[in-house]
Specification:
single chain; 451 residues; alpha+beta; Immunoglobulin-like; 3 domains; 5-stranded mixed sheet; 25% helix; 29% strand; elongated
C-alpha cells in the first residue's frame, strides 16, 4: 500500500508541475480589486452542509477506482473528474465534490497522505481538478495564524511576522469569486484542543474532522485568520493592511458559523483586572471549551472565569489573579467529530490583581445555565459551613451536588430553578454540581474546591 501510494504521489506531483507557482518572498499589494465579489452567499451557503456528497465516499471505496489510483494516476484523475462532472448539477456542486474528494482522500489513506501532502499540495490538487472541470481557480499564498508561535514581546509590540506559511484557493462561479481552503476543512494544520484529539490514522473512511466552514467562505470572515500576500485576494470591499490585520483577534471561520453576534474586542485588550466577553450563539446547545494561559510560561491559569447564559446571550467573565498578559483560547467542542479546533484567540493585559476566584466550569450541553448563589467570590467553599445553592438550567429535571461519597439532590422549583441548603461535609475536598441530560446520562456543570 505504501509503495503504491508513493507512486501515486510522485505521479500526481508530475501532473501538477505545470500548475505550480513559487511563493513570493515579498507581499504584493493591489490598490483595487478586479475580482467581482458575490452579491449574495445564499446559493453557495446551501452547500455548506458539513456532510460530504454521497458519490465521493463511493468513489474512494470502489475497487475499480482504487486499482486505477494504484496503477494509472492520469486515468484515475480523469475518471474521478468525469464522475463529478456527470453527477454535479451546477458549478457550486462541482467545487463541493472536489473539496470533499480531497479531504476524504486524506482519511482514505491517512498515514501516507499526511507524510506527502501539505497545504500547498492541497491547493495544487484542488486547482488541477478545477482546471479539468473548467472552473476558474487561483492559488492564494499567504499567512495564517498558528497557536503558540508568537512570543510575548511581538504581541505587545504588535510585530507579528507575516511570513507566508499557507496556501488556499479562490474560485470563480457565475462571475463571482469565492474562498475555499481544503486544508483547514480537513482540520490538518489547525490548532486543536489536545483534550479532544483523536488518532485519525485509525479512522479509515470516517468523516472525523470533515468540515465545510472554509467552503465558499466570506472574505469578511476569512480575514480574521487568513492574510493573502496579494490584497485583491482578500475578497472584501475595503482591503486592510498588514498592520490592521495584526491588530485583529484570531477568529476561525467556524466562529461565524457558531455565533451570530458578539461585542467587538481586540487582539490585545487592556483592562484593570477583569474582562467580559459577550457572545450570541446560533445554537444554544453548542459547547465551548475555554483555556486561559500565561503566554510566557505556557502554564494554565485556573479558576479565573465563569460562563453565564442569559436569554440568548452567553457571557464569559474573566477575573485575573495578578498583573500580567493572559492568552484566552476558546475551542468549539464538536462531539460528532470528537475534536475541538481553536475558534477564538486573543490576549488580555491586566494592570492589577483581582481576588475573585470561580469554580471550575466544565463543557456541557446545559441550556441557559447560571449559578445564582452562592456567589463565585465564596469559592473555595469551607468545610462544615452551610450554603444556599440556587442555579438556573432549562433542559433538565434533575440536578444534584456530590462530594463523590454523598449525593444531595437539588429541589426543582420550576421554570429551570433548582435550590438546596447544604452543609459541606468535613471529609470533602471538592463539591460537584451535576445534571441529568436528555438521554439519562450525567454531566458535571462545575466543581467547587473545598478547604
Amino acid at each position: 500500500m505504501k509503495k503504491a501510494f508513493l507512486i501515486f504521489c510522485i505521479a500526481f506531483s508530475m501532473t501538477l508541475l505545470t500548475n505550480c507557482v513559487s511563493t513570493p518572498k515579498e507581499p504584493i499589494n493591489s490598490s483595487c480589486s478586479s475580482l467581482r465579489l458575490p452579491e449574495s452567499y445564499s446559493d453557495s451557503y446551501h452547500y455548506r452542509t458539513n456532510t460530504p456528497e454521497k458519490n465521493i465516499p463511493a468513489i474512494l471505496k470502489s475497487e475499480y477506482f482504487e486499482s486505477l489510483r494504484k496503477n494509472s494516476t492520469e486515468v484515475y484523475i480523469e475518471k474521478v473528474c468525469k464522475s463529478i462532472s456527470d453527477s454535479a448539477k451546477n458549478d457550486f456542486e462541482k467545487v463541493k465534490m472536489i473539496h470533499d474528494f480531497i479531504i476524504l482522500l486524506l482519511y482514505h489513506d491517512p498515514i501516507h497522505f499526511l507524510q506527502d501532502y501539505y497545504s500547498d499540495e492541497f491547493a495544487d490538487i484542488f486547482k488541477n481538478f478545477c482546471d479539468r472541470l473548467d472552473i476558474p481557480c487561483k492559488k492564494v499564498h499567504g499567512y495564517i495564524r498558528q497557536k503558540g508561535i508568537i512570543n510575548i514581546n511581538s504581541i505587545l509590540n504588535e510585530q507579528e511576522p507575516l511570513i507566508p506559511n499557507h496556501t488556499w484557493n479562490i474560485v470563480e462561479i457565475y462571475k463571482a469569486w469565492y474562498i475555499v481552503d481544503c486544508t483547514w476543512d480537513s482540520f490538518y494544520g489547525r490548532p486543536i484542543d489536545p483534550r479532544y484529539t483523536t488518532d485519525i490514522t485509525e479512522k479509515k473512511y470516517s468523516y472525523i474532522n470533515y468540515s465545510t466552514d472554509c467552503l465558499f467562505l466570506r472574505g469578511e470572515h476569512c480575514i480574521y485568520s487568513h492574510f493573502p500576500l496579494e490584497s485583491e485576494y482578500q475578497l472584501i470591499p475595503q482591503k486592510i493592511s498588514p498592520t490592521e490585520f495584526i491588530k485583529l483577534p484570531y477568529l476561525a471561520p467556524d466562529f461565524f458559523y457558531l455565533f451570530k453576534d458578539y461585542e467587538p474586542f481586540e487582539k490585545i485588550n487592556e483592562v484593570e483586572n477583569s474582562f467580559t466577553l459577550s457572545l450570541i450563539p446560533y445554537n444554544e446547545e453548542s459547547v465551548i471549551s475555554i483555556g486561559v494561559t500565561n503566554p510566557e510560561t505556557r502554564e494554565d491559569v485556573k479558576n479565573c472565569f465563569c460562563i453565564k447564559s442569559i436569554n440568548s446571550k452567553r457571557e464569559i467573565q474573566f477575573s485575573f489573579p495578578k498583573p500580567s498578559i493572559y492568552e484566552i483560547n476558546i475551542f468549539l467542542v464538536n462531539m460528532r467529530f470528537e475534536s475541538a479546533p481553536l475558534t477564538v484567540e486573543f490576549f488580555v493585559d491586566a494592570k492589577s490583581s483581582n481576588s475573585i476566584r470561580y469554580p471550575t466550569f466544565w463543557h456541557s450541553f446545559a441550556k441557559n445555565f447560571e449559578i445564582m448563589s452562592p456567589s463565585p467570590i465564596e469559592e473555595p467553599l469551607k468545610k462544615g459551613q452551610s450554603y444556599t445553592f440556587k442555579i438556573h438550567i432549562e433542559n433538565t429535571n434533575f440536578v444534584f451536588a456530590t462530594d463523590d461519597e454523598t449525593s444531595f439532590p437539588l429541589k426543582n422549583e420550576g421554570n429551570g430553578i433548582f435550590t438546596l441548603d447544604i452543609t459541606i461535609p468535613t471529609t470533602a475536598d471538592k463539591l460537584d454540581l451535576v445534571y441529568e441530560t436528555y438521554n439519562k446520562e450525567y454531566e458535571a456543570l462545575v466543581t467547587y474546591k473545598v478547604e
